[in-house]
Write a structure and sequence with these properties.
This protein is an alpha+beta fold. It is built from twelve helices and nine strands.
């Protein structure tokens, strides 16, 4: 019965893709159905990252889709579909491709691109994005404490980073530090195997357990001048990457809601109480429709943001509104879904508990709801409530 029901894309936004993009998205779904969805619960329960799946992920040839000529809408829908299958894998993909690889495209020298770009696109090497610090998250723009000191043809890095996705196993990090000479912001391609780099996995997470977040400590790490991003000189350069990343987190919020709706509707149709499927009760139908409405509204907002990007627009306040709104709707949606499953909603065996828990990470990273709200508030009033 369920296969004959409408999809969670109730308004048909996927029809806006080109035929080539639709075919490619079908390939992505096939990969996710075969390689990811059957295994995601186990990876999450064991807090284990599936290194073995990376060659198959690389074979999709989806590194930085827009750089390859795909639309922003397609790039967003890829993230939504990956999140729908496993939020952790989507987060890995975003950190590696949309931050590290995109930085090589945007800021890398010809030498750096020649050395690293193709291997990074092919996932022969993996990357991370090291910006957040133990004492600086939302205020990292002004509070960045990691330092870089020029010493001849090398730079000496000291400091600490926290919550660095892929940080335990990555080969390289795009690491941000403050130049001790003039206070400017520098970016470095940090070889994670260099002496003085220590990495510790953050344990006991209740969300994104498959993602290997790390605490990074830098103690007199020497990086050659050749590994400094020549195109990065101010924090504004960071914002170019964070703008795109923040938008993609909005797409993750869409994917979370697609997943929650899929699981809740299937359960409601199959679960019998009082002699019939619980989907036949008015209150359950109301909850499912509210979930679908939230998902559709979020998808519509993100599709509009993709249109703005295609036209060369899409600024930080618009990205902030999209991230804040879609993640707030996501929180409602996954809570409704968890409720529909009753007691079965708190065990990963039925998927909903994992979806529910992972939503909390999406709600927080790439700017908390409150910080994104204040970015929009500043844009619409001309007054800053942040500082």
């Amino acid at each position: 019965m369920e296969s004959t029901l409408p999809t969670a894309d109730f308004m048909g936004f996927e029809s806006l893709l080109s035929p080539t993009e639709s075919a490619k998205l079908a390939d992505v779904r096939d990969f996710l159905d075969k390689e990811v969805s059957p295994n995601a619960e186990g990876w999450w329960n064991r807090a284990e990252f599936p290194i073995e799946v990376l060659p198959k992920l690389a074979a999709l040839n989806l590194s930085t889709p827009v750089q390859q000529g795909y639309s922003y809408l397609f790039g967003g829908m890829v993230i939504a579909e990956m999140t729908r299958a496993d939020t952790s894998l989507a987060t890995f993909f975003m950190v590696h491709h949309d931050l590290f690889v995109e930085a090589l495209h945007e800021f890398g020298s010809e030498d750096q691109k020649a050395r690293l770009l193709q291997d990074a696109m092919d996932l022969k090497i993996t990357g991370a994005f090291a910006l957040t610090e133990p004492l600086h998250g939302s205020d990292v723009a002004g509070g960045l404490a990691t330092t870089a000191t020029r010493d001849g043809d090398t730079w000496v890095l000291n400091g600490a980073k926290r919550w660095i996705g892929n940080g335990t196993f990555c080969d390289y990090m795009l690491l941000w530090a403050r130049d001790t000479a003039d206070g400017s912001i520098r970016g470095f391609i940090l070889d994670a195997s260099l002496p003085g780099v220590s990495r510790t996995r953050i344990e006991n997470k209740i969300a994104l357990r498959t993602v290997q977040n790390a605490d990074i400590v830098l103690d007199g790490v020497r990086v050659p001048e050749a590994d400094r991003f020549a195109g990065i000189n101010t924090f504004a350069d960071t914002r170019k990457l964070l703008l795109g990343s923040r938008i993609l987190v909005g797409w993750q919020a869409v994917g979370q809601q697609l997943a929650a709706f899929d699981v809740a509707r299937r359960y409601a149709v199959e679960r019998h109480q009082f002699g019939r499927p619980i989907a036949g009760f008015q209150l359950v139908q109301d909850q499912l429709v509210r979930m679908l409405g939230n998902t559709t509204a979020s998808l519509g907002m993100m599709a509009r943001v993709a249109q703005l990007q295609e036209d060369g627009g899409g600024d930080m306040p618009q990205a902030a509104l999209a991230k804040a709104y879609t993640t707030a709707r996501m929180r409602e949606t996954v809570a409704l879904g968890r409720g529909i499953l009753g007691g079965n909603g708190i065990t990963t065996e039925f998927r909903m508990a994992k979806i529910f828990a992972d939503a909390e990470a999406i709600y927080t990273y790439e700017g908390s709801y409150e910080i994104n709200t204040l970015i929009v508030g500043r844009a619409i009033t001309g007054l800053s409530a942040i500082n």
